[in-house]
Amino acid sequence: NSTEPSCDLQELDLSRTPTSGCREGWEYDYKGRQSFVTEFDLVCSDGWLVDLYQSTLNVGFLVGSIAIGYLADRFGRKLSFLMSCVLNGIAGILVAVAPNYVSLLVFRTLYGFGVKGGWVAGYVLITEIVGVEFRRTVGVVYQMFFSVGILLLPLLAYFITDWRWLQVAITVPYIVFLSYYWFIPESPRWLLSQNKRSKAVKITRDMAKENQRSLSKKIETLSDDNADSTTASFMDLLRTPKMRKHTFILSFNWFTSAVVYQGLIMRLGILGGNVYIDFLISGLVEFPAAFLILFTIERIGRRLPFATANIVAGVSCFVTALIPDGGSSKDATDVTKSRSGCFHENETSSGSLQTCSGSRRWWPASGGSGSP
User: Fold this and answer.
1) 297 class by beta-carbon count within 10 Å (0-12 exposed, 13-18 middle, 19+ buried)
2) Is 90 exposed, middle or buried (0-12, 13-18, 19+ CB in 10 A)?
3) DSSP collapsed to 3 states, 171-236
4) What is the DSSP string of 40-89?
5) Which of 140, 174, 213, 253 could cross-link with 208 by S-S, CB 3.0 to 4.6 Å?
6) Where does the Major facilitator superfamily (MFS) profile domain start and stop, copy by copy (predicted)?
7) Which one-letter DSSP state was computed for residue 325?
């Protein structure tokens, strides 16, 4: 009698099967395109290094927001902004020529330091140049140009196929920004706080002349609005129970918004769709959020938009997690919900941006560092 050959699958232990690295290198399905992931082979067991790369940028954000914030108070808003642009130009080029992954992380951290520092100094400068009644509008419009950058980035990435040249392209504007030395004045309010009244008056007169406005003769007695007040410190945010509560709520919201916002943006890259189109649309949905805040914050206050945006963003993300896997339909739903979440997270951030300042702005950077 003969027996057929058989195989007992219960005795097959795949855990003992030896594995080896890809000896001849990786082959990627990105024809004609080069990213830092493909250049340094940050895939499979090294895939977590991509998330670390993003986290180092946020570490730079955290340190830069603190350091440049201090320098802006000490040496002026304009000088701090220009110093940030110089640092961004240098760090951006260093990122583009980084020879290995470790140096890439170091230069990326420096880049984040300058980017966040320049954002903080620029925000303070532009809101102090205008009148008090225009600060909120200018602050929201200033934030909207971040969304403009989000729209331009995928377009640049589509046409510039090498990541190093793409880095050079997004670094060039920082060099151009150095021309602002001749076009943007120092903050008159900061000059007043430094007892430089003559310079503050001259800048104010020049702005009035440019806008074809006349100034009151009382301009010569111009003084800082806070000249008679005591100097505030970080501890003032924690001094009373009510202030501690408000500080904790806004800080926690900043932290959470940064985690969710960046998490949703990073999610777009793993859904399997066209990453350029998905990223472009994720930037488009930020504009309605900004306009909504712009037209509601003065009419119905801050708390209602603030709370509503948090609730809608949370529900959108929660519903996404409950949707069962379903191939392309699941991916399409995820993209839609992610965009909705980005919309409402941006609405939340834009609203709280106008109600918090100083140390509470450190929390978005710390939240972004932990989002991967």
Assistant:
1) buried
2) middle
3) HHHHHHHHHHHHCCCCCHHHHHHCCCHHHHHHHHHHHHHHCCCCCCHHHHHCCCCCCCCCCCCHHH
4) HT--GGGTHHHHHHHHHHHHHHHHHHHHHHHHHHHH-HHHHHHHHHHHHH
5) 213
6) 1-372
7) P
Amino acid identity of 194?
Answer: Q
Residues 49 and 172 in one domain: yes
pLDDT the model gives residue 239: 82
The verdict on 117 and 179 lying in the same domain is yes
pLDDT in tens, 166-198: 999 999 999 999 999 999 999 988 898 888 888
Question: Which CATH number covers residue 39?
Answer: 1.20.1250.20
Residue 2 belongs to some domain of the structure: no
The per-residue pLDDT for range 106-153, each reduced to its tens digit, is 999 999 999 988 888 998 899 888 888 888 888 888 888 888 888 899
Kindly state whether residues 245 and 351 are assigned to the same domain: yes
Q: How far apart are the first and last CA of the chain?
A: 63
- 4 in a domain, yes or no? no
Q: Which residues pair with 162 in a beta bridge?
A: 34
**pLDDT the model gives residue 22:** 60
For 46, other C-beta atoms within 10 Å of its C-beta total: 13
